Amino acid sequence: MTARQPSWTLRRRVVALLTVVGVLLGASVAVEIGVAAKNRDHIHTMLDRTGPLRVQSQELLNVLVDQETAVRGYAVTADRQDLEPYVEGVGREQQLYRSMEPLIDVYPVMARELASIKAESADWRRAVAEPVISTTERSGTAAGQALITDQTRQRFDLIRASVAQLQQGILDQREKGADDIYRTSSILVMLLIAAALVVVVAGAVLLTSLNRMVVRPLTSLAEQVREVAEGDYQHRIAGSGPPEFQQLADDVDAMRQKIAKDLAEVREARESIEWVNSQLQKQAEELVRSNRDLEQFAYVASHDLQEPLRKVASFCQLLQRRYAGQLDERADQYIAFAVDGAQRMQRLINDLLAFSRIGRLTTGFTEVDLNKVMGDVAGQTEAARQYADAELTWGELPVIRGEEPLLTNLLANLVSNSIKFRRPDVPPKVHVSARLVDDEWEICCQDNGIGIEPEFADKIFVIFQRLHSKDAYPGTGIGLAIVKKIAEYHGGRVWVDTDTAEGTAIRFTLPALPEDVEAARAAEQQAAEGPADEAVDAGEPATAADPAVAGAAGVEPPRQGGTRVEGADEAPQSDSTGGVKETVT
């Protein structure tokens, strides 16, 4: 990576530009404030000084003229009413002096002129007006008029000229103030225009700078990133513009390199996984083929061994029947051993053949009523139940999809095991129940037999696995393996419930029908909303609950029809049945 020349950062550039603009605008604002203050002073002078002074000076002239006119009129008529304007004019004149003096103090020349007018008017009254008034009162109008001469008129004209000169000075000051207002207003407008130009120029400079320092580098960086995103992971991302963007480009390029490295590793791992998967696929195919061959071998071997074994067993039995008692005791024992071994081998091969046929010879899944299946199981296990005085009961069982012969075989093996592994001197009791758990039926075969230790709970489902000697409990050790294979073939599982206090409880699951699941959920929702009103008509028999609803609650649903006692042929229980109890609740 090449070293870059140090340059101003984007923040520093923006701050510098804003600082310059701020200084210019600040200076402009300061000058505008000063000019606006001066403009305000000028307006104040015009409105509050020269304007009132001009009006009052004109009023002063009028008051003085009224005094002079009133004196001349009084000299002619000697009427005191004609003298009232003079008296009022003197008072008003003094008021005007008092109001004009504070306003005119800022203009020394005009202040002196106003003082001169004040003194001249006072002299005029003392030298002309008062003598005329007093003479007219004492000597009459002729004497008063005699005092009004051209000299006295000229003296008043001097006062009038002084007032006119004062008025001209006030007018000049007013015009000067108007010029100042115009000048300061023009300056203020120019300053505003300059501030606007500064803002416009600053905006243009900022826009240009952002386009050059921000938009272009970001656009270039985005284009390079898009190239990488499209799959060119080897494309190096180079930055331009301020140091921040260059650093951002370096960071993005570092991320690109890491992604490219990770992708390379992922690609290698995927190739390895694909190779492993291919090997596993080959092994799986080989295992499937091997299992198929083994199943075929087991089927063929068990099938083909039937004939020679049947001959061996038949001839051994013939030897036993024909020569029993003709040979010595040891020979009879040997023949008995041979017959027993042949029979056990025949049972073993039959069980192996049945195990190998599971899933090979299929009739297809149909809806199977497990209540009917339990009736068939009761018939198949009748002899064993009669011998052991066993009691077989079951609750309301569901309808599921499966193969009826296999399910019959599954339940028959469980019931047979429960009868076989009984406790001495305790009549066996076997109960089959079902409950709905989520979307599966959980079916339990519970007995009161010898039970199973928890450490052997998984071992009993292994083919040919036995926990007891054949002398204690006969059998081939393949029955529960068949149960496991049938349950898994139907999409379920099987296990031993180790929490049972007495006997053995073997549970297995079967997928439930969708309508059973929906009915259970509807019942749960109804139960959550509140118990429904119940009404039972007198004399009408009560109906059983829906097995799906009862099973969802974990309670064995009662079957309609109450309790019945039957044998294999659906006949009522009698002493001829050997005391076998087959009860459906």
Structural notes for this entry:
The chain has about 575 residues and is α+β, with helices and mostly antiparallel strands. It has 14 helices and nine strands. The strands form two sheets. It has a seven-stranded mixed β-sheet. Strands 1-3 form a two-stranded antiparallel ribbon. Helix 3 packs antiparallel against helix 5, helix 9 (about 370-380) crosses helix 11 and helix 11 runs antiparallel to helix 12 (about 480-490). It starts with 9 loop residues before the first helix and ends with a strand.
What can be said about this structure in brief?
The protein is α+β, with helices and mostly antiparallel strands.
Q: What summary fits the major beta sheet?
A: 7 strands, mixed
How widely separated are the two ends?
Answer: 86 Å
Shape: rod-shaped
- Give the amount of beta strand, in percent: 5-15%
Average pLDDT metric: 77
Q: Let me know the number of strands.
A: 9
The H/E string reads HHHHHHHHEHHEEHEEHEEHHEE
- Given as residue ranges, the uncertain stretches (5+ residues, pLDDT < 50) are 532-585
Q: Helix fraction?
A: 55-70%
**Main sheet: which strands, in order across?**
6-7-5-4-2-9-8
Please work out how many helical segments DSSP would assign: 14
